[in-house]
UniProtKB/TrEMBL annotation:
It holds the Pfam family Fucose_iso_C. The keyword Hydrolase does not apply. GO terms for molecular function: intramolecular oxidoreductase activity, interconverting aldoses and ketoses. Residues 335-445 form the L-fucose isomerase C-terminal domain. The lineage of its organism: Bacteria, Bacillati, Actinomycetota, Candidatus Geothermincolia, Candidatus Geothermincolales. This is L-fucose isomerase C-terminal domain-containing protein. InterPro entries: Fuc_isomerase_C, Fucose_isomerase_N/cen_sf. GO terms for cellular component: cytoplasm. It comes from the Bacteria. One of its GO terms (biological process) is monosaccharide metabolic process. Keywords: Carbohydrate metabolism, Isomerase.
């Protein structure tokens, strides 16, 4: 997740305006992009006149450069009035990517001499993009100086990383959803058509069979790593070995199928037929950037994937579980034991799936959940879903993990939000019981990423204002 995002930069200019001013500020923008952690790709003077984009032919060359370089998004800067047609052609190319527009302010008070007129020119570039039904965003202050755009560039890079990562992703579905959980149904063809996401189904029987034949050396290494990173609680060597085998098996399946995430039927076959709960292995893979959703929740895996790319850190899957008994706007973000270990700097203990153990009266085969309490601090929650009346939507909310009375088993964080009732109302109106959750506040970037993915954001709570604004609703 730490590799710089490649962004194309279109230095939009008109030949009628001062070329030296445009050339100088072009280099300043490149420095601002690098300061934002971006790897900028822009035409140089060997490709276009002065390294600017001013004609349709220069736009064609620039678009080809972006395509060959594999950029995840494009920033278009009106360095002066800018020529809107070449700017739009260069930005969109043959494959549409997220686009950010900005313009450069004047050097000082207006005179009869040299001037930029980017304030007006950026409107023309936006108009050309609207004519082509293209989505775009822009900074909250769209006309400024290169150093003023660094935060907006950094947020746009997160958006582009997320959009590029989710489009065309491949998720493995290990086993069918639990029969009683209609909440986890999804339309595979609709997901493919909307986001190009493909789902690779894998039978549980195949997974169990493969786990019995993985290389013993890898099992031993994974066993030792597991043993060194968690309090084993009552887990035996045999049970921990089975967890290690399953992690190695998941790794092989992910590599062979080019998977970006997993949605696992984590109960009850795993406990009855393989003798463990797979939660700890799933949590460790999530920690390493491969989101693993519970209960074969494919949309849950998508939500975790999208949020982890936006946050730049792992996202867990939680139930909207329980309202706090004393604190009105606090609820439990909880699951049986599959949160990524980095969610807690405190005690982490292997335990058993207590709901299954208590409901069946049998503890055997239930161990493998990860008990932890989330560290205090800000969090973002995100859930993608599809329903027949609103289409594709994404619920976004920010909150704060706080200290609160009550000690649920499993993985848990007590989350304080502005208005639990408003949040809960939106969940009831259109979302299932699972949400992705990640540390930090990225609600602003999440809204912009949703826009570029064609998902309607649902935001029942106030959130920190991001650095970007979205363009036209298409």
């Amino acid at each position: 997740m730490s590799l710089p995002v490649k962004l194309g930069f279109v230095p939009a200019s008109r030949t009628l305006f001062d070329q030296e001013l445009a050339i100088t500020v072009r280099d300043d923008v490149m420095e601002s992009l690098r300061a934002a952690g971006v790897a900028p790709v822009a035409p140089g003077p060997e490709l276009t006149a002065n390294g600017l984009v001013q004609t349709p032919e220069e736009a064609r060359k620039t678009a080809a450069l972006f395509e060959d370089s594999g950029v995840a998004g494009v920033v278009v800067g009106a360095l002066n009035f800018g020529n809107e047609i070449p700017a739009a052609l260069a930005a969109l190319g043959r494959v549409e990517k997220p686009v950010l527009l900005f313009g450069i302010g004047e050097e000082g008070r207006l005179t009869r001499g040299s001037r930029r007129d980017a304030f007006c020119g950026l409107i023309s570039i936006a108009t050309a993009l609207r004519h082509r039904e293209a989505r775009f965003c822009f900074p909250r202050r769209a006309i400024a100086y290169p150093r003023d755009f660094t935060d907006a560039f950094a947020e746009f890079a997160r958006v582009c990383r997320a959009v590029d990562g989710v489009r065309g992703a491949v998720y493995g579905q290990i086993g069918p959803r639990p029969a009683d959980f209609e909440s986890c149904v999804f339309d595979e063809v609709s997901l493919l058509r909307k986001l190009g996401i493909r789902v690779a189904p894998l039978p549980l029987s195949t997974v169990y069979s493969r786990a019995d034949s993985v290389a013993e050396a890898r099992v031993r290494d994974t066993f030792a790593d597991m043993d060194g990173t968690v309090n084993r609680g009552g887990a035996s060597d045999l049970e921990l070995s089975r967890m290690a085998r399953m992690e190695v098996t998941f790794e092989d399946i992910i590599a062979e199928n080019g998977l970006d995430g997993l949605a696992v039927q984590c109960w009850t076959s795993f406990q009855d037929d393989y003798g463990i709960s797979p939660c700890f292995a799933m949590a460790r893979l999530t920690e390493r950037g491969i989101p693993c959703a519970c209960e074969a929740d494919v949309h849950g895996a998508l939500s975790m994937h999208l949020l982890s790319l936006l946050a730049g850190s792992p996202a867990g899957l939680a139930d909207w579980n329980n309202r706090h008994h004393e604190m009105d706007n606090v609820f439990s973000a909880w699951h049986c034991g599959v949160f990524p270990p980095s969610f807690s700097s405190g005690k982490k203990v292997l335990d058993m799936h207590r709901i299954l153990a208590e409901s069946t009266g049998v503890e055997e085969g239930k161990r493998g959940t990860l008990e932890l309490s989330m560290d205090l601090g800000p969090v973002t929650m995100l859930r993608v879903t599809e329903n027949p009346w609103e289409g594709w939507q994404v619920l976004l909310a920010e909150g704060e993990v706080i200290a609160a009375s009550g000690e649920p088993f499993g993985s848990n964080g007590w989350v304080s939000v502005d208005d639990v009732d408003a949040l809960y109302a939106e969940v009831l109106r259109g979302f299932p019981h699972h949400t992705a959750i990640a540390r930090g506040k990225v609600g602003g970037a999440s809204v912009v990423a949703s826009y570029f993915l064609g998902l309607e954001p649902v935001t029942p709570l106030s959130s920190e204002e991001g650095h970007l604004q979205i363009g036209p609703a298409l």
